[in-house]
From TrEMBL:
This is Helix-turn-helix transcriptional regulator. Residues 6-118 form the YheO-like domain. Residues 145-204 form the Transcriptional regulator DauR-like HTH domain. It comes from the Bacteria. It holds the Pfam family HTH_22. It comes from Clostridium ganghwense.
């Protein structure tokens, strides 16, 4: 069942999809359940997003983007598994306590418009990242990622986790860019009751296994 605070955004998602047509996909994420964050989609044929899936670009292309400001990052490029070029924008959703609880994502399929590119350059432009002044610290990015780590691990009994299960959790977080944040490895090690060295060894093992595929 969708969170009531997030449910309010369903009419907005529907409005955006209706306004910009079938090539505009809108997705609502519930970040209290990171592994299954997608709770609502419209026009999900654009990227194939389904309810129950996890987020893809939140950390790497939104929270760590130099264009991330005012709780949103707009007009960054993503590529679907079948090679389609997508223009994406993401805004964080906060509750009445100013806590980040979700995200509203817009994905626009640019493929049908390529034949009109000369006329639509301004619309299709993917902005280059702008260097901005140093902020304190990362516009609450560290706090947001720490909260994601807590939620990813919260629903597991750390004391009974087997080595393979710990590696799967670390692989999930690595894929989502969690470890790009300074101090994330130390925090995860503490939460899983293992050493920082062990986390690094698991990451090395994950990388080696992927290279052997």
């Amino acid at each position: 069942m969708i969170n009531k605070d997030l449910e309010r955004y369903i009419p907005i998602a529907n409005l955006m999809a209706k306004t910009f047509g079938k090539n505009c996909e809108v997705v609502i994420h519930d970040l209290s359940v990171p592994q299954n964050s997608v709770v609502y989609t419209v026009n999900n044929h654009v990227t194939g997003r389904k309810v129950g899936q996890t987020f893809d670009h939140l950390v790497k292309q939104v929270l760590l983007s130099k264009n991330f400001d005012g709780d949103y990052a707009a007009n960054y490029k993503t590529i679907t598994e079948d090679g389609k070029e997508i223009k994406s924008s993401t805004a964080l959703i906060r509750n009445s306590k100013n806590e980040v609880i979700g995200a509203l994502c817009v994905n626009y399929d640019l493929e049908p418009m390529k034949n009109m590119k000369n006329f639509l350059d301004d619309f299709m432009k993917v902005e280059e990242e702008k260097v901005k002044e140093e902020v304190e610290p990362f516009n609450n990015v560290i706090e947001i990622v720490d909260d994601l780590i807590d939620k990813i691990i919260t629903n597991t009994n750390v004391d009974t986790l087997k080595r393979k299960e710990k590696i799967e959790l670390i692989k999930f977080m690595d894929n989502k860019g969690i470890f790009l944040i300074k101090g994330a490895i130390e925090k995860v090690a503490e939460k899983l009751n293992i050493s920082k060295v062990t986390v690094y060894s698991y990451l090395d093992e994950i990388k080696k296994n992927e290279e052997e595929r």
